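This week, study the protein below.
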Amino acid sequence: MKVVADASVLIALSTIRQLPLLAERFPQGILIPQAVWREVVEQGGDRPGAQDVAAAPWITVLPGATSGISLLLQAELEEGEAEAIALAHALSADLVLLDERDARQAATRLGLRSLGAIGILIWAKQRGRLPELRPMLDALRTQGKFRISRTLYEQALATVGEL
């Protein structure tokens, strides 16, 4: 399975110390474009994700796609999101990891399946890798300054039987 990730999922999961869930969920590893590496590791300094991503042997950095798709997407999205989606499209990836609504909509328009940090946490809870989802969602909100609508929060909890 080919999986490409944007920075948001890496940072969100690192913030709550759950980045290893990605290695469990995708044992073949994940791919990130150079722009995501720059954003998370090079420009990240000592922010969440920088050291974790740099040290993860299951993350492979690839050059960003230099297609017209990438350039078009950069008109509406951040560079990392645009490159992640363009790379996923170029590789015919099975999945692209994105959190931002606009990025997910752009991926869908290109026929790509997407999954976000909350989806990874739901998977982990359903597989018994997390005892509870609620504390993870709360940590995303407080520690990660992650915007989660009330509806999404409640849907996620309902999915795992915590509502």
In short: Residues 79-90 form the longest helix (12 residues). DSSP finds ten helices and five strands in the chain.
